[in-house]
Design a protein that fits this description.
The chain is an alpha/beta fold. 37% of the residues lie in helices and 16% in strands. The strands form 4 sheets. It has a 7-stranded parallel β-sheet, sandwiched between helices. A two-stranded parallel ribbon has the order 7-10. α1 links the parallel β1 and β2.
Amino acid sequence: MRGKRVLVAGAGGFIGGWLVGELLRRGASVRAVDIKPREEWFQVHDGADNLRMDLREIDACRAACAGVDQVFNLAADMGGMGFIEHHKAECMLSVLINTHLLMAAREKDVARYFYSSSACVYNAAKQASPGVTALREEDAYPAMPEDGYGWEKLFSERMCRHFTEDFGLETRVARYHNVYGPHGTYDGGREKAPAAICRKVAEAKLSGRREIEIWGDGEQTRSFMYIDDCLKGTLDIMACDVEVPMNLGSAELVTINRLVDLIEEIAGVRLHRRYDLSAPQGVRGRNSDNGLIRQRLGWEPSIPLATGLERTYAWIYDRIAAGRSAKPAAVAIPA
């Protein structure tokens, strides 16, 4: 990446903030763009050109893409299951970002374009059991993705494919499977399971209340990928010659109950569990088949779930103990 001029769309978000820092460390010149005010970004890197822009607008996309070699599109209105099940229209409107960024990238002669898709594109009928067979890339069809957010992601994947076929724009697509780590949201409704459970356990420990609410019966299964593995996989996919979407996730399948076990062990507490069977739960089971990315790129996640959770819990616990706002404050990290 040394010497490359790179746009990161969604740079104020969790993965985007980490990606900007990694690109700077690798010697890239980075234009970091997000719709949020800078004081609401998860991380602000002094070495980047940090801009507030609404990338749903075509003119903003043209300005953002001007003079760059590569685009990483991580911008989307999204969150955990509690958010995407109740904000389907808002999630679908993210299609404007990808559509206009693709158009602008083509106009501005961008050499390569990365789109961050999601495991929510996969056919729900293949995810009806906690003992789910790990999902291969072809399992996205016949199409029956997560309503709203999943349909937007699948449609945007197709847009990337057709811009490659029709216009020659080099595109790469990664299907992220539940990325977690420090410097992410852990409260407010957009948080995902690892951060939400870390927060609940930390609050229980600090308050002395020895109970925790779990959405569903806790036997639904997922795999979770630590942010460091996500960054390496993202950059490997961007640099590779594979044009089809690729899974990027861990194959370490766990129940939500086991996820709670692990975080309790890290915190040194045992909590009474209350199960809310009416809460959003998503599919019954989901896991990543990494056969394609392992074969083509030699990529495997390197950080076990317990290790990543320990780092994540420590960061969330420290913020809650210090009485900081649940809304992440900007963190200035020099390049």
